[in-house]
Queue: 3 jobs
Job 1
Amino acid sequence: MKGRAKRAKEASDVLRELGYRLTPQRMLILAAVQASDSHISAEEIYSQVRAQYPHVNISTVYRTLDLLKGLSLVTETDLGEGRVRYHYADKGHHHHLVCERCGAIIEVDEDLFLPLKRTLLKDYHFQANIRHFAIFGRCAKCPR
Amino acid sequence: MKGRAKRAKEASDVLRELGYRLTPQRMLILAAVQASDSHISAEEIYSQVRAQYPHVNISTVYRTLDLLKGLSLVTETDLGEGRVRYHYADKGHHHHLVCERCGAIIEVDEDLFLPLKRTLLKDYHFQANIRHFAIFGRCAKCPR
DNA sequence: GTTGCGCCTGCAAGCTATTGCGATAACCTC
DNA sequence: GAGGTTATCGCAATAGCTTGCAGGCGCAAC
């Protein structure tokens, strides 16, 4: 998969250029997030990485995800499952509508938040960092 | 404090009318949330309640907060401190802008989200339940 | 290839929050 | 006021995530 390999290279270049070390743990964690087509949990990343590198510790997974998150290489979403999920951030960001009744998850484009972002900047001089958002409520199939 | 006593009565009426039992634990937890002028954490509620009723368990606090949350009597906010905070829900809902650099917390009115709510309802038929929201970013005093 | 600095990791303890289960007590009926 | 039903509670175990610390390893300089 060419696109994936290219993305991986770019991401590790970002790390190297910023002076971060390219450890096997970091590469594997990054690869796991990139290989996941949807949103992946820390535990899932952990077991994938451990398949190739049994000594890794779960805390390393969390620390690396934190690092990647800070560099905007991955985004984090809380869909209200009691665990956070991660997503590689090369595609356009998107948000989630989570139905409180049936659990359905609807992805919506980030453009939806542009008016809100503009208002916050204009009225509050607040530069909102809206990457991944989960909005809870009731979906079309679950009437009130 | 008349207003507070009145609110407490109303809240316990809601519980009773819905068939929930009015236990001293619940009353004390409710009172603690109501007595807090700002947002209160589960641990703070726990120690306040325990001062009057030493046998209470922290799990009861969480379970009660969950119940009250479901009944829209309290709202829950995650301000990114690693612990969730609670707030009595009789006043108009509001949201928070949290500065990722200096930690400042700015309260904003819920009206700000009305356009977004309308869009979600119109385009996705999704009835968003936006009570308490935290938006992270950079405040006016922390330039980029 | 070797050396050395210090970033990074593994380990273990700790924190917030949740859950299963048996015991208790709130509420209804009489 | 007494008794029965069952919602609720306390306890302890557990899950998800974080943190302090000591030792290991990536990387650059030689």
Job 2
Amino acid sequence: MLGRMTTDTPARLLQLLSLLQTPREWPGGELADRLGVSRRTVRRDIDRLRELGYPVEASKGADGGYRLVAGKAMPPLLLDDEEAVAIAVGLRAGAGHAVAGVDEASVRALAKLEQVLPARLRHRVATLQAATTPLTMGDGASIAPETLTVMASAVAGRERLRFVYRAADGSETRRQAEPYRLVSTGRRWYLVAYDLDREDWRTFRVDRVSEPFATGARFAPREMPTGSAAEYLRRSIQRQQETYGFAVAFAGTAAEVAARLPGWLGTPVEEEGGGGGWCVVRGETGDPVEWLAVRLVMAGHEFVVREPAELVACVRELGGRLSRAGGA
Amino acid sequence: MLGRMTTDTPARLLQLLSLLQTPREWPGGELADRLGVSRRTVRRDIDRLRELGYPVEASKGADGGYRLVAGKAMPPLLLDDEEAVAIAVGLRAGAGHAVAGVDEASVRALAKLEQVLPARLRHRVATLQAATTPLTMGDGASIAPETLTVMASAVAGRERLRFVYRAADGSETRRQAEPYRLVSTGRRWYLVAYDLDREDWRTFRVDRVSEPFATGARFAPREMPTGSAAEYLRRSIQRQQETYGFAVAFAGTAAEVAARLPGWLGTPVEEEGGGGGWCVVRGETGDPVEWLAVRLVMAGHEFVVREPAELVACVRELGGRLSRAGGA
DNA sequence: ATAACTAGGACGGGATCTGTCCTAATGCCT
DNA sequence: AGGCATTAGGACAGATCCCGTCCTAGTTAT
């Protein structure tokens, strides 16, 4: 009877969870060794994890073992340093141009992760981030991930926010606001907040915000003005959003083209009564036209832009530049 | 004295950790309420977390509170459903074309996450993944994230792997192998494994692998052949890798061009004694030339490709296609 | 100054945890 | 078919730990 070792139960459970998250099978004996407890205790711990809702699967028989499988709820993720860095970099890279719907959660996750990311890993993230900078947009309206995470934290923590806002005419003003929600539509981000100086609700374009920081001050949430908050958000943002429709004809059958086209762009439809082997893709987007043009040309099919005029102009310009680059 | 509530200590600690990961401050009283224990116990729990290495910071004074800050080690990440989905989607999007160094960890993290991702979230990930498919490569050498995660799990779990391999000439063969390591260089992924049929070590290009699955069978790791494993890997992959050098002249000063060019492409240098306002970028990459061409044209400066010939041809082709798309 | 919070010591009773037995059932390998 | 290693779980006793209830001290914003 050697008595209990120094490590206490909760720590051991966490360690066990960490071990089980490695994608392999762990025999009870090995776990007992690693955790420094008896085999019986390991069985009890595993029972406990199961009761907590983390489904541990066991294979019986010789070289059986335990392994954590998918269950009803997300168990706590136990990441090593490199994995944490990889996730941070991945999320930051995607923060600017993700899909509608994921991106808010993505920013929340990033904020959560960066809140607890050890200092020694931060510079690694920053370095890699710099190396992986994606192609900058035509209008340079890129958003620093830091800006988003600071804002997300402020929203979640109900803290007042100070920042500099650059209006459409280029003039900059200092603002102080109570951030209410961070939303993204297409590729644009908006902060809905109560502007304390203007004493009214405002919607800010995040790409025009700089130097945001959360003052420690907490605030009690206000009522949104016009009835439903969701409705207000929708209208408030729609007013600011600049989307445009486009129509492009591709050479090829609808099936051929669809196979090479990113799904979110739109679905190609065969042109009625048109000349054989052409189909048309119509859609709407808020992306810069350069971005769209690149997507279209990478599909590998001949195509003709029908609208808008801006896209036609952009396609011509890029085409000319590329042709000249080829020394034609 | 109401006695102890039903929840046991480890569960409570996990719940506490989860609450503290919300980016806000929690007063002790509120935590006590939520956890259903006395305030004193909350203090003790927080002490415990600190001893475990998770630094909980406390603000004293009125409306102070607790909050989890960055410490020495990564605490377990407690994600809600949406955050988990966002991370999965982000990592999968980045899996194909991440930066050297991060990507292996990135795949490990993805494998870890998908191992425990609740079933009801999986289809959401798949749906979003389909929507966010990036521009497909010219040569179609894209890799399904599933392939990578299956392989990563097999490597970590020392499980045998079966898959179909498409050789360079297009012929397909079934393989059975003991996966040793998954490495990525530039944008290419390689699986280093012991081929059980050929009875020798092989390096497989992952983009030529299909239908991989891990048979349950475990194997004992073999010795790598030529001395240092790292050395073998390096040479084995170098043999397969096809990189090429490129040289591109840009109109503009080095500073101007550098500002618009992704950093990993290379650093522009002013041409000696050349005509004013041109600079040259030289680099080496394994990317498909289409990808490179897009990066170059998005920089927004006039440019001329000097080498390689493939890039010149590609630039001409894309330029022609775009010009025709503009109806020129 | 007052209020509200964190920080932590002392104490006792009850719950809990652990190791050591034990038996049963399952699957793999020879 | 038989043997072996594994998971699964009951019973028990003793040491340990945990929790709530007191208490005091220190800090900060109002």
Job 3
Amino acid sequence: MPELPEVEIRRQYLETSSLYQPISHIDVEDNKLLTTNYATLLTTLVDRQFIGTQRVGKNLFVLTDQPDVIVHMHFGMTGDLEYYHNSINRPRFARIVFEFENGFNLGFLCPRKFERVGLIDDIDTFLQRKKIGKDGLAITLEELTERVRRKKALIKPVLLDQNVVAGLGNWIVDEVLFQAYIHPEQRADTLADEQMSQLHDAFRFVLETAIRYEATYRDFPIGFLIHVREWDDSPYDDVEAHKFCPRCKTRIERSVIGGRTTFYCPEEQVLL
DNA sequence: TTGACTGTTGTACT
DNA sequence: AAGTACAACAGTCA
């Protein structure tokens, strides 16, 4: 479920599994998953090695031993990585496979085909072209305040906008707003200094916690709103407890804001 | 069988 | 210009 923390986990995974192994071939099941012509991808990357990684928001960049050859990966809603040895072990949905000379493979799993892989020659140029904002873990309070306050839209859609700040997705925006005691429908330009400060603190808290738990939501601390989603449709009785605010026990509200399913505590996240 | 879905992009309307 | 709403993408899963 690739929001910033999941992409960070995938970055670490690629970094520890797939560097310094010459690429012998790349198998692509569906060219629609590529943002670069398949023949170009092949001739450019065969005999190259991955030498490092970088992440900005939900974008993963894989550096190669040729400085102007960089692989860009976007995981869409369901993308994942799996490093495996024998082709018999090829994971389900490994629709793009980087085959290394040592017999190992890095599979890019694309269950829904919303994922994308392609070549770029410069990260900054790419980020500028796509207007990607500062990473959620790197943005300062001042930058966040400036970017949020010049928007009149609801705070939730604003935080979801990758041009404002990069890396937050639907689940994390809800969590961040919950931790910051801010209603998802408050107008972005009406946030007080104290709210901006709470918001910025919540960014770090939620993102760092998520990464620490390797983005496995069910392991998150009990004070996290995320659990109302996790067991929303569970058949078990004790699930009811998860439908209430972990702090004040009010029933969590579910609605659609900015076209996305939204959970919030109507008692603590008051509309100002 | 139906509906919902973590993301992004484009279009159309206001 | 900026905000809003919505569909489309293509598949899985409950």
